[in-house]
Structures
1.
Amino acid sequence: MAAAGPKITPAAVGGLARLLIGGGIAVYGATNSLFNVEGGHRAIVFNRLLGIKDEVYSEGTHLMVPWFERPTIYDVRARPSLIQSQSGSRDLQMVNIGLRVLTRPNPEKLPEIYRSLGQDYAERVLPSIIQETLKSVVAQYNAAQLI
């Protein structure tokens, strides 16, 4: 005689499937609803319905709505930029000069920076500003004064 095991009904299989799917969605939502902002960084959040939020998130763990919101993390520590330039001095001699500049974004202005310039703002803006400023300052001096 064969031993009779527990009978699995289609209703039990359906209930188990619903439980597994619901549990999977709950785990996915819980793991993707948190984001961390490390020290020296700030975050802004893009919402698919509202666009870029005006709030800037400081260090710590923050909540977001999965799929509807996506954080963008910015490094707000001072970073060096080294620019090499060849420019003319007051006596029209060409001078090779290097300039090291420490830059960092203003954390309160990060939503505006992201809207107008994007995440790679430093590569877009800094070289041209530094280059023009360097050339205008070098043009005020003779080559002998720069040595």
2.
Amino acid sequence: LKNKNRWVKFSTMSGGKEEGHKFEIGITAEHFLAIKKAFEGALQEGSQTISTDSVEGAISSMLGISLSEPMFDLILNRTEACNTVDFSKFIQICTEILLQYTQWGSLIKRPAGLAGFESYPKQVERKLVKDGINFNIMVVGQSGLGKSTFINTLFHSVVSARDTQIPSSTPSTPTQSIRSVVHVLEEGGMRVQLTVTDTPGFGDKINNQGCWEPVCAYIDEQHSAYLDSELNIQRPSRIKDTRVHACVYFIEPTGHRLSELDKIAMQQIQKRANIIPVIAKADSLQPKELQLFQNRLRNDMASAEIRPFPQHRSTHSVEEAKEGQTLLDEQPYGVVGQNYFDQKSAKRYRKTRCGVIEIDNPEQCDFVRLQHMLLRLRMYDLKESTQEVHYENYRRENLKPANSGEGSELDEQELQNPMDHFTFEETHAHEFIPQTNASREKQHHQEEKPNQQQQNQSLPQEGGRRKSSLDAMPRNSRSSILNTSSQSQITNSSTV
């Protein structure tokens, strides 16, 4: 009963007589227990049936609403030929009411014949195979933790931003900007447009205060670009999606505790993207040391309110919640990158001076568990969570009216001095932020209108409000609208 639907068989009736059209309805365990509880509440001591007069009150208490006239008529038609109602009859009455007159639960009606809509999943599959999908993944961590090797091992190909960048004549520095590279992969007829974003040099300086801001700024820029395309009057049928679907955060295998830099960075990133913590170069720790380190990291993340993916949502069922909790218990994953492939056995290994580690062996490495969760099990959920949780939060904050104070955590003093509550140096905030076309146009626009820039200095730079549609209109149209509104106000005042 807990894992399957309970199917209730009954026939349609008209005037107290059965008709020839029979069907079945499936109710879940939650529905069945609620119906059972309502029936037991109407039972009298030593009786297995309830009176017909008690059926209305039992159903009304179960739904938590007063019954309408159509519901009363249906109950009278089903109970006019009997004085008492047993539990099976009560289930049939409840399911028919719920099916016809309420939106309570998800009732399943099984047609008597084949209608044909069972092929809808195949139609969606053909569409996906034809068009393909996109998946955007970001790796964040200090240099030398094997981020590029991990990405190449994850997708069985050279797709990392470091290994696929175009060589230049100037020597490359450890990190100057966030780099992204796009690949098209095909597996079993399914095409995926993969975007890999690397953050080289993250946390490599002596003073790492504010080093997470370029990462957060990049994620916000992708949300902003998608929102701008969505708000256009003439927008494409398929909006280009560059939003980060998964952020794999690499933790240094120190064997101690979670560093303050990792805590603050993960706290800021989880507000914008799905974060998945991993322990880099797990082969540098003994199995017992790795297990103790994972337990310490779980406690530190719980105390810091760091919520890795997947998180429970109200739309998840009981089974999905249990499965998600099982995946959370496995995190953070201890991963090892591949540096050797055996042609004879077709296995991937990590060769070191101390020995050999089989990458695809779950007893030696958590890489298989991470790959299974990331690509085979939760790839769609990552995209869905990005759309319905993180993007909706960004959209709600940026489309909020300017005069609305709800949800704002800044007081009046902070609004007057927006940069006073930041303790980091301003040079760090601009050192790693990538200069995209949108940011260049915004800078050029601000240089053309210095007066407008001075007026906007009193507003907070983070979480600012979007311009109204009136500001974006031409001056002639704007003046005509203002004149029309002023004339209408004069007319209304004269009428009064």
